[in-house]
């Protein structure tokens, strides 16, 4: 079952047990890993595994590894020296609860645990060693300096200044797009999919990844409008460039619709079983939070 | 050649190229990775690979992965929210040069790159997929919450208070011992060593790992004495427990000698070729910095 609940259950099985000595770091990891979220990435992994004829069981360690990497990136992103956020999903951020040192270490340990999980005995038995190596390598490529971390540094260096649409898209392709791409491809790898299916998964991932970010920007503006009474478009005065400030809200909606269509069309290489991922792309487009 | 120079050369080949967008994080990684150091861990990996009949070439990606993990841990350890150090090996620490955000991200990217390196195409061709999976898993176990990061949290929570010798040893077994153990075992894995050899390598690692820490403590006291004129033993007034404060300097020297003897003796399962590792253990014991 591809639900946030079953994914959380699986995540917990990979966490180390408390030992009385290192409990702070284990509690820091557990706190953020169980702090909710849509579990978009693991759901994509499981869905593509199924679509390509694999099993959820075999893909689950990879799905969990992705969610661990996503979670660590949020912990470090929220740190005072980064975005300095005190709340995430309505709860105090990790460093507010455990202190900065345990937040840094909890993030480090989650990133490390992601690889331990993707390369676990369970993962190897169900997927074979060669697939585990390819999965671990792809995870690292997408999460590292050429992927997510690269996007985070572009984001930090784009603060308080206008940037071009091209730079914004490059940033997002790395910062959030890379892990979404990994999510879809990991499912394919687990199922032993061929190149045609891998390419379709990548196209789907790239389209929904970008659409996801554009919707995020639109929702931000709408919620500002609702809560602060700011007129739409007034964020043009804001220093940070967004899809809304660069394209306007109508063009954002058009692009989101077109990207979602392209994502759905990319699934046409699969004979059947594409309903879940078709609906998933539409739900991401139509979400209101 | 097992020299710091050849290892640094190999390390640089695994770093991502600058792309004009994410250069800050790549420079942050490069700065710390090339900031010197004894390269104890990669040298151990290469030495055990050779001793077990493998090649330096095959073991090099694993050796480099270990050094990347060691380096990331130093960057994060030096952060203001951790040890708050401004100098390391006589040079400004990473966050002093690049800022805290780039130091956090540079560390994250190095940890990620370690797995990309251990699971690289090169590593797989030379070692086979199964070995790469075992290596990646061991790296993660030794670097994560049950290993190095676990030791770091124990260290943080032991600050400004006396701790028992048992707790100090547990902390060091995790904080520095785990990576030294990984270093020796990774060399064995690369060479396809059997369990007897793996156990000997682990014994060697555990002995020199602990001896290394005790020597560190002794050298700290001697350098305080030399530069600050503090009499030996006055650190008993210091809040932090060390081997010197708990055992006295003479007992420290005895233990270091005994541990080094045990390390050398553990190599007796190998028929020949143990000179390098015998000398290495002695040099660590006799070093003066």
Write the layout of secondary structure elements.
Two copies of one chain form a homodimer.
Chain A: H1 4-14, H2 23-33, H3 40-51, H4 56-77, E1 87-88, E2 91-92, H5 94-98, H6 100-118, H7 121-127, H8 129-143, H9 148-157, H10 165-190, H11 195-228, H12 243-247, H13 249-266, H14 275-286
Quickly list its features.
homodimer, 289 residues, mainly alpha, Farnesyl Diphosphate Synthase, 2 domains, two-stranded antiparallel ribbon, 72% helix
Describe the 3D structure:
Two copies of one chain form a homodimer. In chain A, α2 crosses α6, α4 (56-77) packs across α7 and α13 (249-266) runs antiparallel to α14. Chain A has helices spanning 4-14, 23-33, 40-51, 56-77, 94-98, 100-118, 121-127, 129-143, 148-157, 165-190, 195-228, 243-247, 249-266, 275-286, and strands spanning 87-88, 91-92. Chain A starts with a helix and ends with a helix. The first copy, chain A, is mostly helical and 289 residues long. A two-stranded antiparallel ribbon of chain A has the order 1-2. Chain A is built from 14 helices and two strands; from the N terminus they run ααααββαααααααααα. The longest helix of chain A has 34 residues, at 195-228. In chain A, a hairpin with a 2-residue loop joins β1 and β2 (91-92). The first copy, chain A, folds into two domains: 1-193, Farnesyl Diphosphate Synthase, CATH 1.10.600; 194-289, no CATH class. The interface between A and B is large, with 54 and 55 residues.
């Amino acid at each position: 079952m591809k639900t946030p609940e079953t994914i959380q259950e699986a995540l917990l099985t990979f966490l180390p047990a408390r030992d009385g000595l290192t409990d702070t770091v284990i509690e820091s990891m557990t706190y953020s890993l169980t702090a909710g979220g849509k579990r978009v990435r693991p759901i994509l992994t499981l869905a593509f595994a199924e679509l390509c004829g694999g099993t959820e069981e075999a893909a689950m360690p990879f799905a969990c590894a992705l969610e661990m990497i996503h979670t660590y990136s949020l912990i470090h992103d929220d740190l005072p020296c980064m975005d300095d956020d005190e709340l995430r999903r309505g709860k105090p951020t990790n460093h507010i609860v455990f202190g900065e040192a345990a937040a840094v270490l909890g993030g480090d340990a989650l990133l490390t645990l992601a690889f331990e999980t993707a390369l676990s005995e369970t993962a190897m038995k169900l997927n074979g060693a060669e697939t585990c190596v390819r999965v671990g390598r792809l995870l690292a490529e997408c999460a590292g300096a050429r992927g997510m971390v690269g996007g985070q540094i572009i984001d930090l260096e784009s603060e308080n200044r206008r940037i071009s649409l091209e730079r914004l898209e490059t940033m997002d392709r790395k910062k959030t797009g890379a892990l979404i791409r990994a999510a879809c491809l990991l499912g394919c790898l687990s199922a032993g999919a061929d190149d045609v299916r891998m390419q379709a998964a990548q196209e789907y991932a790239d389209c929904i990844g970008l659409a996801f970010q554009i919707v995020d920007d639109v929702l931000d503006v709408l919620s500002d409008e609702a809560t602060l009474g700011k007129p739409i478009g007034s964020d043009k005065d804001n220093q940070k460039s967004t899809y809304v400030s660069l394209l306007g809200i109508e063009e954002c909606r058009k692009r989101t619709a077109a990207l979602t269509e392209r994502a759905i069309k990319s699934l046409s290489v699969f004979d059947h079983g594409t309903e879940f991922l078709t609906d998933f792309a539409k739900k991401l487009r139509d979400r209101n939070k």
